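Risk mitigation, structural track. In case the binding assays with cobalt (II) ion fail to produce interpretable data, a predicted complex structure has been prepared as a fallback.
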Amino acid sequence: MRNLRELLENNRAWSERIKANDPGFFQALVQQQTPRYLWIGCSDSRVPATQLVGLSSGDLFVHRNVANVVVHTDFNCLSVLQFAVDLLKVSHVIVCGHDSCSGVQAAMQNLKLGLTDNWLRHVQDVMHGHEALLSEISDEEQRLNRLCELNVIEQVLNVSRTTIVQNAWDRGQELAVHGWIYGIGDGLLRDLDICITNQRELSRAYEEAIRTPG
Ligand code: CO
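Fallback model:
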């Protein structure tokens, strides 16, 4: 119980493998991190951010929570965003959801899980906002996966509306906000064709993304 020996052994083997390939790898990382991307994704264990985009240590700044929600009063997420944009000067923020998301499913089915219900209320807001669109989908799994996509699109909008991103665009900093969805069943990412790089693109990109069938 007190000893996670297997994980610590895995870690030693992992470190040795990397050093065998590139002896200076970790020492270079001590000096600085220069990631170009901020990933905002779901905490789901099946969606390992850095691995699934083929990146390595130092390449991806990561924030994950249940159902990849960006809330304007969540100082945890906002602090990660500010650190990434203002200090690390990332060029891209990727909001990545995934299909079959149990957080989104719990929101859709109005399950009573406890404290988490309050967090998932934000996903229910997304669902209620798109009720007409979702009610056209009779298959439950497809409806869930469409809500997973709509949730990503709404969170892209939330990221773009933060003072952090708005201020970055105002001062001319290059910064793109993307919305992706990850397929648990095939390991593939899909671009939801919402990419916002300035204030002017915001409304139109959102409207187009919502209209595009999933
Ligand atoms: Co999830």
